[in-house]
Design brief:
Blueprint: H1 12-16, H2 19-28, E1 31-35, E2 41-45, H3 48-56, E3 60-61, H4 69-75, H5 78-82, H6 97-105, H7 111-115, H8 118-135, E4 137-139, H9 140-145, H10 147-157, H11 164-174, H12 180-205, H13 212-221, H14 228-259, H15 261-269, H16 274-285, E5 294-296, E6 300-302, E7 305-307, E8 312-315, H17 317-320, H18 355-372, E9 377-378, E10 400-402
Parallel strand pairs: 2-8
Antiparallel strand pairs: 1-2, 3-5, 4-10, 5-8, 6-7, 9-10
Helix pairs in contact: 8-18, 10-14, 11-12, 12-14, 14-16, 14-18, 16-18
Length: about 400
């Protein structure tokens, strides 16, 4: 057997099918050491039980800047420090800051309030598919899977429709870094996105409404709940995280269904299957391939391996979701799979706040699509599809489909 060496995690070949490599890691090196694009010692954890531990471990800090200490911060490339203004959000913080920041927005994402968006998501899905039906084909990513979640989160935050494409472009640029050159190229997007958010806040401050952005501004003005930088970073997180996972769920989920026609037909015949079907597509396609980084505040033992203090740790969600120790026939798509404790929304205190919204959007968008077009099929061979670059997310760049 060939020695185990790190692949190009963002290459087209790897993104198209990363699962054989992860399966080998689970067998040979479940806690895998390599050097990151910033030349720092890094560990990739791949087994379900170990990934669960990493996602919950109190000594693995999400505050990579704050937990690093003065010595490591001094060694950080200046380029990374440019990203610090957009990292002052709950995803990149530990308690008590994480608890304080999360409490400010969790009320907007409760299942009850998300359920109130059902009619809006349905109307939007119907309108987009009406437009596609007139053409007979579409790129499912840019004309459907992207527009649904971008529109919903932007409306929740009061972002003008004319700016939707702009912030989505910046978002894609920032999560697609695969090497130092990509990081350099993404600096203008960081600067422009930050400037845009500050201008958006200033405009909304002069004309408050009943949207989530206005609520966050009022929380900031109420005292020590949310400072100006945290407000910018929180909106950045909500705009980016509020659509990236769902884009890949809808597009990657559709691709999986088209590649498994018996499961697609099963979904059409059993409409009540949509909820477990979306859970299985979240597991099988893994829209979030790898979790964001964590920083070892002290020596941490995971899977029998000691990760030294100061090293970075990534959890391979896509690998955990295919772990044969947790799931029977993990490489089989089974829309009725039970139980299905996938990790696509994380675990612990950083469990995805927008999970109820992503589930709602995925269920409505996929159910409406497959029921509306019984002759839905790929308009290009699956092996010719291009995949999104970047380590964290996994989904097709484009998905040309024929509707009739």
């Amino acid at each position: 057997m060939q020695p185990l060496s790190p692949p190009d995690f963002s290459s087209q070949n790897f993104k198209a099918n990363p699962f054989p490599f992860y399966a080998r890691l689970r067998q040979e090196a479940p806690v895998y050491h390599f050097t990151s694009l910033t030349k720092e010692p890094t560990w990739l954890v791949t087994r379900y039980e170990d990934v669960s531990q990493v996602l919950k471990h109190a000594s693995l800090s999400k505050d990579v800047f704050g937990a690093a200490g003065a010595e490591r911060r001094a060694r950080m490339p200046w380029l990374l420090k440019i990203f610090e203004p957009v990292s002052q959000n709950m995803l990149s913080k530990d308690p008590p800051d994480h608890t304080r920041l999360r409490s400010l927005v969790h009320k907007a994402f409760t299942p009850r309030l998300i359920e109130q968006l059902r009619s809006r998501v349905q109307a939007l899905s119907d309108r987009l598919l009406d437009e596609a039906a007139r053409k007979g084909s579409m790129d499912l990513v840019s004309e459907y899977a992207l527009i649904v979640p971008v529109t919903i989160i932007a409306e929740m935050l009061g972002v003008p429709p004319s700016d939707y494409r702009k912030f989505q472009h910046w978002s894609n640029r920032l999560i697609s870094n695969t090497n130092l050159w990509d990081v350099i190229l993404s600096v203008p997007s960081v600067v422009m996105f930050t400037r845009y958010l500050r201008q958006l806040i200033a405009r909304r401050r002069s004309s408050l409404g009943d949207d989530l952005l206005s609520a966050l501004i009022q929380a900031e003005e109420a005292g020590d709940k949310l400072n100006a930088d945290e407000l910018v970073s929180m909106i950045f997180l909500l705009l980016v995280a509020g659509h990236e996972t769902t884009v890949n769920l809808i597009s990657g989920g559709t691709l999986a269904l088209l590649q498994h026609p018996e499961q697609l037909e099963r979904l059409r015949k059993e409409p009540g299957l949509i909820e477990p079907a979306v859970e299985e597509l979240l597991r099988y396609a893994s829209p979030v391939e790898v979790s964001t980084e964590r920083f070892a505040k002290e020596d941490v033992t995971v899977g029998g391996v000691t990760i030294p203090r100061g090293h970075l740790v990534f959890a391979a969600i896509a690998s955990a979701n295919r772990d044969e120790r947790q799931f029977k026939d993990p490489d089989t798509l089974d829309l009725g799979r039970e139980p299905n404790r996938h990790l696509s929304f994380g675990m612990g205190i950083h469990y995805c706040l927008g999970a109820p919204l992503a589930r709602l959007e995925g269920q409505i968008a996929l159910r409406t699509l497959v029921n509306r077009f019984p002759k839905l099929r790929l308009a290009t061979p699956a092996q010719s599809l291009k995949w999104r670059t970047g380590v964290l997310m996994r989904g097709p760049q484009r998905l040309p489909v024929s509707l009739s």
